């Protein structure tokens, strides 16, 4: 299963398919201050992405792949580390 969680953090890794969307949604509802760790994520189904976007949670880590990281940064409103804005 590509989901590991604690009370404070949801870790998504590997391939998150549509089957994980409901589990992600349920965790987000139960842990309203929980953060996201996506560093080991390889693929994210659009249903899971939409759930994460709606949650507006803090993202602790993005995937190592630069393209995936930038796409998720923009979708989840994660601040760009190269931005001049403070």
SSE topology sketch:
Elements: E1 3-5, E2 9-16, H1 21-30, E3 35-44, H2 46-55, E4 59-61, H3 66-75
List keywords for this structure.
86 residues, Transcription Regulator spoIIAA, alpha/beta
Describe it:
The chain is α/β, with parallel strands linked by helices and 86 residues long. It has a single domain, classed as Transcription Regulator spoIIAA, CATH 3.30.750. The protein has helices spanning 21-30, 46-55, 66-75; strands at residues 3-5, 9-16, 35-44, 59-61. The radius of gyration is 12 Å and the shape is globular. The chain starts with a strand and ends in an 11-residue tail after the last helix. The relative contact order is 0.18. The model has no long low-confidence stretch (mean pLDDT 89).
Q: Cα-atom Rg, whole angstroms?
A: 12 Å
Tally of contiguous helical segments: 3
Q: How many β-strand runs?
A: 4
Please tell me the total number of domains. 1
Strand order of the largest sheet: 1-2-3-4
**Biggest sheet: strands, sense, closure?**
4 strands, mixed
State which percent range the strand residues make up: 25-35%
Sheet/helix structural class: alpha/beta
Roughly how many Å apart are the termini?
38 Å
Low-confidence stretches: none
Short summary:
The protein is built from 3 helices and 4 strands, in the order ββαβαβα.
